[in-house]
């Protein structure tokens, strides 16, 4: 994923939650309780989405670093073994 796609994804994720907050305030001002319930559910789901993606991003970085370390270590070890092995 390139930087522009990541930027668009994260800003869209955050702006969606901000939009729900704005619509919630607007529905409170107009005393529309039924819309407040719907907006509350949508806001809850948006925040859960944000939290989930943040946790996945952190976990993915950790797993990628572990994978890179293991791959490099196995490559180095196989190179050393092949250099000292007798054919």
TrEMBL record:
One of its GO terms (cellular component) is Golgi membrane. The keyword Repeat does not apply. It is a multi-pass membrane protein. It holds the Pfam family DUF846. The chain crosses the membrane at residues 7-29, 35-54. The keyword Transmembrane applies. InterPro entries: TVP23-like. GO terms for biological process: protein secretion; vesicle-mediated transport. It is found in: Golgi apparatus membrane; Membrane. It comes from the Eukaryota. Keywords: Golgi apparatus, Membrane, Transmembrane, Transmembrane helix. Belongs to the TVP23 family. Golgi membrane protein involved in vesicular trafficking. This is Golgi apparatus membrane protein TVP23.
């Amino acid at each position: 994923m390139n930087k522009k796609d990541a930027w668009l994804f994260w800003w869209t994720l955050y702006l969606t939650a901000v939009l729900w907050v704005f619509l919630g305030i607007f529905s409170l001002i107009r005393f529309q309780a039924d819309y407040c319930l719907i907006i509350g559910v949508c806001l809850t789901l948006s925040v859960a989405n944000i939290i989930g993606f943040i946790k996945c991003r952190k976990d993915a970085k950790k797993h990628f670093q572990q994978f890179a370390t293991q791959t490099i270590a196995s490559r180095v070890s196989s190179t050393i073994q092949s250099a000292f092995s007798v054919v």
